[in-house]
Amino acid sequence: MTTSSEAGRRPRAADRRPRVVLFDVFETMLQVDALGARFVDVGRPAHEWELFFTRTLRDGMALTLAGAAPPFGEVARAALRTTTGHTLSDEALDHVLAGFAHLPPHPDVEPALVALAHARVPTYAFTHGSAKTACDALDRAGLRTYLRGVHSAEAIGSFKPPARVYDWVCGQVDSPLDRTGLVAVHSWDVHGAVRAGLVGALATRLEGRVPAVVEPPHVSATRVDTAVERLLALPA
Amino acid sequence: MTTSSEAGRRPRAADRRPRVVLFDVFETMLQVDALGARFVDVGRPAHEWELFFTRTLRDGMALTLAGAAPPFGEVARAALRTTTGHTLSDEALDHVLAGFAHLPPHPDVEPALVALAHARVPTYAFTHGSAKTACDALDRAGLRTYLRGVHSAEAIGSFKPPARVYDWVCGQVDSPLDRTGLVAVHSWDVHGAVRAGLVGALATRLEGRVPAVVEPPHVSATRVDTAVERLLALPA
């Protein structure tokens, strides 16, 4: 889907084992579909969580494309109002949005974090949501102890996946682009990371397959732990 | 939501009647929810059209943020495969996607186009979908005769709403940014246009209200024809 003549195109990282790994948070580490129960609590259909979450990302990306994105929480609140037809009270909006800090972990994540710890690969969470919310949620989910830190692109007014967010986070964790891995279940996040020059690992449990429109990840597998095993099996 | 210190921020266009008007196509002129019937045809729930369409825009914007977007049709096909869990045959995918060229018009659009014609304001369609599909759909919907042309940001490998797409289309229609209007039901599209220096008109019939996270449009109204009346009522 990309042309080799594209201006400013960065070289693809070699297939090498990363020295630092970044983990996407929502949907990759934590089960966002658990928000469905909170939609039911406020009188909405459970399946609406997915339209709401997709719309939040779409709007955050649109605002990023147009110049600068406000914090994730503000974009999510506006998207929730729109998705629910302006029928929810402020209390009901708060109840749904508070759910982001109470999401259960996906069961294939802790084994992946254990493998990275055993391999002595420093691991960080990297979200465009609020770093505070992500910290709280990862604490409650029992995953935070495996992480050296939690970073959010919110700090630079951007949603993922432009190259500048991966440049920024690699600076934060003091790791060269081509020795940094990104693990996610969203193919567009891995696509952005690979195009920025990182080593991409896609778990396909959310999307089913690698879509035809993205840059191929360096490794992929259905489960997150298997994808991380393949990342660690790359030559040093 | 935006800071005055933001680098490269363009000045907001004055409240003046535009000399040329651009119309968004899908959802603004044409009823995309009509795709719901085609989801049912292929054994999927009708409401899935909205998640599919939102995902298509999110993915197209993500690919744009990461460097360059493939054509809308490719992004939509990949999003349809993912949204339907890879259960649809190629024929079923074709059937749903062909629906984009057969969408009925929103009833508040023809009166708006008549008003613009009476006012001698040249009007163009501006989409990030395929220009050919948009032309076919607008022909069938009986709206194409009011339009001087149909332009797609696909020509420059981008989805809306970065400033460069509005710069590009204003060049195509030979109109200065601050004398060009953009009419849409998506607040993020009007936001992008206003931040690029155009005159923005938002019809809120889709989203219900102007969201808190976007740049205020120059005019807004529930219906498209009323929004266009307000645009035409601005001082010359």
TrEMBL record, chains A, B:
- The source's domain of life comes to Bacteria
* Name under which the protein is recorded: Haloacid dehalogenase
Q: Is Secreted found in the keyword set?
A: no
Matches recorded under InterPro entries: HAD-like_sf, HAD_sf, PGP-like_dom2, S-2-haloacid_dehalogenase
The uppermost taxa in this organism's lineage are: Bacteria, Bacillati, Actinomycetota, Actinomycetes, Pseudonocardiales
The answer to whether UniProt assigns keyword Cell membrane to this entry is no
GO-annotated molecular function: hydrolase activity
Keyword terms? Hydrolase
